[in-house]
Amino acid sequence: xxxxxxxxxxxxxxxxxxxxxxxxxxxxxxxxxxxxxxxxxxxxxxxxxxxxxxxxxxxxxxxxxxxxxxxxxxxxxxxxxxxxxxxxxxxxxxxxxxxxxxxxxxxxxxxxxxxxxxxxxxxxxxxxxxxxxxxxxxxxxxxxxxxxxxxxxxxxxxxxxxxxxxxxxxxxxxxxxxxxxxxxxxxxxxxxxxxxxxxxxxxxxxxxxxxxxxxxxxxxxxxxxxxxxxxxxxxxxxxxxxxxxxxxxxxxxxxxxxxxxxxxxxxxxxxxxxxxxxxxxxxxxxxxxxxxxxxxxxxxxxxxxxxxxxxxxxxxxxxxxxxxxxxxxxxxx
Length: 333
Prior knowledge:
- By secondary structure, the chain is α/β, with parallel strands linked by helices.
- It has one domain: Rossmann fold (3-Layer(aba) Sandwich).
- The protein contains 13 helices and seven strands.
- Strands 3-2-1-4-5-7-6 form a seven-stranded mixed beta sheet.
């Protein structure tokens, strides 16, 4: 019953949001990777997400079973939970970590500050990278940021004979970390290939993603197709991978022959994030009102998509997948 109520409310609000979108003349449907960059530039420059969500543009972790928790504390907890689940905490201080899709650098700063890693965060959004640099204190010299396309990383092949770009080194990264970036990638296999290309042999791969239900577990009905279309078009997503299909892409990559990927489903642990994302506007009204009327309209525009995400995760149309793997020291024959 709750799911149906959420869906009806989302549909009503979405109608208003569509009219508002036309008035604002800001479509976010995916066109190219440039449209993703533009969407994140706007989200960063209007400051609404940062005012409401803090430094982390990802979901929170509320424990298993999930329990009430401060929204921003849950977001920080998510980073630590993923570090421990993936085995990243067993890497020594000074290990080189690449954060693919770093947002405004919240996770990268935790990785550098709390675990002593040498972190390079990358995003396709110049505005995000500029803000990440502004938020990073001088006490974290090993936390750096660069504008880069995840489908064409300006980084050398791990273990290759020659550096391919201005960042990184021949031995590659000790770990590659990517949280909620995959939905923006039009070519999932290329995304998997690029992540693994820059991980050194023996290094770790850590991915967390919004995933759709796999087609082998049931085709979408008409209502689900409508919801999915909104989830794609409202936030510049070309397509979601399923947990099963993304795992298959990673294991099929020529850069990780013999790779064995372990997966988990954190849907229940992250579920409260969607409603908390809306409630933050009520808990911190000054964060919105202080930015003026455009921020209020922007907040109203985001609400139906957040409600639809909540419904999709509650019903199993969407899942929150986590992935961990250690790159083989020697490629499989």
